Amino acid sequence: MSRKRSRGAGPFPRPVATVTPPATPPVERRPAPAPRPDPADLYAALDLGTNSCRMLIAQPKGNQLHVVDSFSKSVQLGQGLEASGRLSRASMARAVGALKICHKKLAKHRVERMRLVATEACRRASNAAEFIDLVKRDTGLALEIIQPEEEARLAVVSCAPLVSTRTEQLLVVDIGGGSTELVWIDLSRVPRLERPRAIMRLHQGFDNADSIFPRAKVVDWISIPLGVATLKDMYRDVTDDGARFALMSWFFEEQLAEFSPYDDAAEQARDGFQIIGTSGTVTTVAASHLGLRRYDRNKVDGLRMTSDQIDMVINQYLALGPDGRRRDPRIGRDRQTLIMSGAAILQALLRAWPTDRLSVADRGLREGLLYAQMSADGVLEDGPF
User: Fold this and answer.
1) 21-37, pLDDT tens digit by residue?
2) Residue 102 and residue 55 in contact, taking contact as beta carbons nearer than 8 Å
3) Rounded to an integer, what distance in angstroms lies between the CA atom of residue 238 and that of residue 243?
4) Which EC number applies (predicted)?
5) How many CB atoms within 10 Å of residue 104?
6) Residue 245 to residues 127, 163, 250, 260, 342: CA-CA distances in angstroms?
């Protein structure tokens, strides 16, 4: 399974700029000033992933954002993609149905500033362009397929408020439906109180060497084209529940072999190390640990779990079996078929980088899209998080 960066070229390929001389001398013109966004403006971010369609509509509030409306629906866009390499008609129809609801919400709130993105399923599908045209024709929404680096970068930006001022080495893990992004960041040269803000500034790019501010150094990043949906599909023929889980976890751990930001990564992970996990898998495990029969974001986002607590929840899932997980209210109907592939990924990650704690983030690509838009428009206050 190929990764989304080349080993030889390094993680940050530099674009080569070409300059075409003008045919006639340029006429000096003073550019018209861009209208400054109103801090009361609403912003939207839509993430169409391999499994879900999710949208947030929010307003800047101080250095954070205030959510005005949201939408989330499992559309299983990537169902069958592993075998056929194409988005099926049924999958596209489910996604278009969800996007029509999103369009109505955007119109209702009169949102003008938005980014609507698609990720791994559309990156891989041979008929992605056909699907994008279908969405535009049937919903009026212009979807943009983003590349793995931007997806990883925005996931990191969304987690900025959860970064401890004591963190010197940070690993952010985003477990998606079709891919998993890992980003290792060195914060040791950033003053402690500046560390969350330094993470936020990564929306400008992982290789933002020209920044005048203290820099968070991205040591390495990787996008593995395996997520909860694609890993589940890969082992759907294995009937034994425990054996399927073990095989999924082993296979994902194999994909981590080449991602080692330091020769002594395990040593680096001992002091001042923080791992933040952002995904439906991580938040579901956290909700199960807390015994929440009704999900409460305020109790989950920012929770720190020990590796023993995570292992205990995963062992409970295994003991329940498929029928028990289907009936467990802590898991939820949308998540119960995917929770074990996600748990296999999570357990493999914790084996690769032994740490006694994981920070849970109920945030991800959508929040990263919103923060990046608001930060670029200058409508967020530059205060401490």
Assistant:
1) 344 444 444 444 455 66
2) yes
3) 7
4) 3.6.1.11
5) 12
6) 31, 31, 9, 24, 10
Average pLDDT, the chain: 84
Asked if residues 158 and 364 have their Cβ atoms less than 8 Å apart, the reply is yes
272-290 burial string, b = 16+ CB within 10 Å, else e?
ebbbbbbbbbbbbbbbbbb
Asked if residue 210 and residue 70 are part of one domain, the reply reads no
- Dist. CA 129–CA 212, nearest whole Å: 40
Helix (H, G, I), strand (E, B) or coil at 171: strand
Q: Which residues contact 276 (CB under 8 A, 6 or more apart)?
A: 159, 162, 163, 170, 171, 172, 173, 358, 359, 360, 361
- Written as one string, the DSSP assignment of 16-31 is PP--PPPSSPPPP-PP
- Per DSSP, the three-state class of 346 is helix
Q: What is the CATH number of the domain that holds 336?
A: 3.30.420.150
- CA–CA dist 290, 176 (Å, integer): 23
Distance between CA 322 and CA 142 in Å, rounded?
39
Sign of CA dihedral 116, 117, 121, 123: positive
Task: Give the structural domain span for 123.
Answer: 43-146
